[in-house]
Write a structure and sequence with these properties.
The chain is of the alpha/beta class and 427 residues long. It is 44% helix and 22% strand. The protein folds into two domains: 3-158, Alpha-Beta Plaits; 168-419, TIM Barrel. The structure holds ligand C2E and magnesium ion (MG) (2 copies). The site of ligand C2E has 24 residues, from strand 9, helix 6, helix 7 and strand 13.
């Protein structure tokens, strides 16, 4: 590697450009399938940098590089993309050995402090040749992200499912703006029913994406939108559409029920969230009593504070709120104590079972009792069967949202429910 533009200034290893040239060379020679492509970085390198300074960090990188280089055969390649990000092409039969090496490399700092460096590794066994040399960086990098953020393990091999997911997320982000502009996102309404009277008492607005003749579920497009922080536009849009629908129902002489809409915790990054929600409802000309804002709890202390402020802000503006999926993750009594919410939605995990546990029964009874005592409404979601209704009634909750009564319905179908709010008695 003589071309300086193709080298990393610190380690002298091929940089991204240099590495890609090496990969392209092997694709052209037809030898690329002999290799496993690696992407790895150093665990805790941020701490090393903050503790020993940039100079210390650089020293670690240089020594680390030397040790890894010692391992390489002539036709294997190590690249340094920048920071503590490395890539390598290693003969497939030596990949386990390479992983073992990366599991503990010793380096020394000036004062003879010994550090044992472990890496997190993504890898791709190249079984078939391919056209884009960038894949030798991109694919193992997908595995590395999975290792770090999903599986929390040191080594992960890339799979087709991971690559598909990345492609799907990318597609969502690329099409998001135009989908919003073209009104491809629809709001479906899932009824909430009082099981004592079989009467419609509310509904939740749930977003769907009508794309290419298919109805895409939120599980597909919400995570990538949350990740890149753009979900808030969709949540405002859903609220706006719900308000439009409510306005039309009133104009048509129907009596609406309160509609809850979901706001992602990521939306809290928008400091004007409560104000914007208030403005959207007010501008639509509907009565505030027809909207409820659903949010989920959080363990993150900072988020908890923001959430508490947000809920209070909505309360002061006369907008109702609900805690969604209560009991699914880390619920706390502080949620009940601090948050001035109108509704507690019990997560379906409590009833999503064939046999109800006596522990759940005790817990639910007390939660529902406490929530009611605090003046909150309680709704149970995900109810599919009559025995679940019996169980949930027994512990003191009567408002039900679930397939037992209705799935999320297209707006025209939901309007039929508004016209006749009483459900035929079901057994
Ligand atoms: P969620 O807010 O907890 O909504 C309830 C989910 O449970 C809905 O899934 C609903 O279809 C499903 N469900 C309801 N009853 C039953 C049942 O009896 N059995 C089963 N198995 N499932 C039931 P959906 O519509 O796929 O939405 C999934 C999640 O996506 C929602 O969970 C919510 O977190 C999110 N989401 C939906 N719409 C929006 C939105 O406009 N904005 C944001 N930020 N998130 C949304
Ligand atoms: Mg919800
Ligand atoms: Mg929920």
């Amino acid at each position: 590697m003589r071309d300086e533009q193709m080298m990393h200034y610190l380690t002298g290893l091929p940089n991204a450009g240099g590495y890609i040239r090496e990969v392209a060379g092997r694709i052209n020679q037809g030898t690329i399938t002999n290799y496993t492509a690696f992407y790895f970085n150093l665990k805790g390198f941020g701490n090393i940098n903050s503790r020993y300074g940039m100079e210390g960090g650089n020293k670690v990188l240089v020594q680390f590089t030397e040790k890894v280089k010692d391992f390489l055969l002539d036709d294997e390649v190590l690249g340094h993309l920048g920071g503590d990000n490395f890539v390598a092409l290693i003969k497939t039969e030596r990949k386990e050995k390479f992983c073992r090496l990366l599991n503990g490399i010793e380096v020394y700092l000036e004062n003879d402090t010994k550090l044992k460096i472990q890496s997190t590794i993504g890898l791709w066994d190249i079984e078939e040749t391919f056209d884009d040399p960038g894949d030798a960086i991109g694919r193992p990098s997908v595995a590395l992200q999975h290792a770090k953020h999903v599986l929390h393990v040191p080594v992960v091999k890339v799979t087709d499912a991971m690559l598909k997911k990345v492609a799907s997320n990318k597609e969502v982000l690329e099409k998001y703006q135009s989908a919003l502009e073209n009104r491809e996102f629809l709001v479906f309404y899932q009824p909430k029913v009082d099981s004592r009277t079989n009467t419609l008492v509310g509904a939740e607005g749930l977003v769907r994406w009508k794309h290419g003749g298919e109805m895409v579920s939120p599980g597909v497009f919400i995570p990538p939108l949350e990740e890149n922080g753009e979900i808030v536009l969709l949540d405002y849009y859903v609220l706006r559409r719900a308000c439009e629908d409510i306005k039309r129902w009133v104009e048509e002489g129907l009596t609406p029920v309160p509609i809850s809409v979901n706001f992602s915790r990521k939306d809290l990054l928008d400091v004007d969230l409560a104000e914007n929600i208030d403005r959207i409802i007010t501008n639509s000309g509907i009565d505030k009593k027809y909207i409820e804002v659903e949010v989920t709890e959080t363990v993150d202390e900072q988020e908890h504070g923001e959430l508490s402020k947000f809920i209070k802000d909505l309360y002061d503006r006369g907008i109702m709120t609900a805690i969604d999926d209560f009991g699914a993750g880390y619920s706390s009594l502080a949620t009940l104590r601090e948050f001035q919410v109108h509704t507690l939605k019990i997560d379906r995990s409590f009833i999503n079972t064939d046999e109800f546990s006596w522990k759940d029964e005790v817990i639910l009874k007390d939660i529902i009792h406490m929530a009611s005592g605090l003046g909150m409404n309680v709704v149970t979601e995900g109810v599919e069967r009559i025995d679940q209704i019996e169980f949930i009634n027994k512990v003191g909750c009567f408002v039900i949202q679930g397939f037992f009564y209705d799935r999320p319905l297209p707006v025209e179908e939901f309007e039929e429910r508004l016209k006749n709010k009483v459900y035929p008695k079901k057994e």
